[in-house]
Design a protein that fits this description.
- The chain is mainly beta.
- It is built from one helix and 25 strands.
- A five-stranded mixed β-sheet has the order 1-22-21-20-19, with no helix packed on it. A four-stranded antiparallel β-sheet has the order 2-25-24-23, with no helix packed on it. Strands 3-4-5-6 form a four-stranded antiparallel β-sheet, with no helix packed on it.
- It is globular.
- The two termini are 32 Å apart.
Amino acid sequence: MICSQLGSAQTITQTTDTFFVFNKIAGEQVTDFTVDNLGNLYVVSNTGQIKKMGPAGDSIAVFNNIRQYGKLYLIDVTNPLRVLLFYRDFGTIVVLDRFLNTRATIDLRKQQLFQVNAIGQSYDNNIWVYDELESKLKRVGEDGRVLDQSTDFRLIVDTAPSPQFLVDQNRLVYLYDSLKGVYLLDYYGGFKNRIQLKGWTDFTVIGNAMFGRDANMLYRYEPGTLNLQNYPIPVAMRDAQKIKITPGNLYVLRNTRLEVFSYR
């Protein structure tokens, strides 16, 4: 099992020749952000506005109703044509189109989903949610109706996850719990594996590789290997509130300023 191999025989490669080159400031007074796979940037301002900008920095759309359901917990732009806003405290998901117009609003509590901390786009344009009360991964439609669900995790693993991140990528669903590691499932909710990569934040998946970080290092790990790579985070970035890596850039949010770096 990978989970035991990582704990005892992993090969850690520290890359010293990787460097980050400052590119530009992408926003001021920013409280959160994300980037889609087309290079569009979504910036949440301290006034409660979401602004979508193209790769060249041109303004594409604005969403102003961000505080209608309380504090915004997550923006999922896995599908650039269908943006998900998750308001965890109110158990509400707002579905937007590519111009940030509201398509649907889902009240998870009406579907008896009272403890959901992680959601994400699904492969078939529905929505994955992790129901912590039942310890199940569920797939719901835009009407909130549960379409499918996994087996109770408590019946198949020694400890059920409480994930902070949920990613659907390459025919797998990744649930990341910073205290317990990565849980991998197939699209039918079947449990595949658990990988004990703990203590990460800003978890993401690019291609077949998982990325995350702690206070001092960026990490890359590809399932099926024993090679956990780490990249030192420059001292000037270590106070970052959020860091997101994409195939071309590194985005760093620090002191309400969003900075973009290129890397090799």
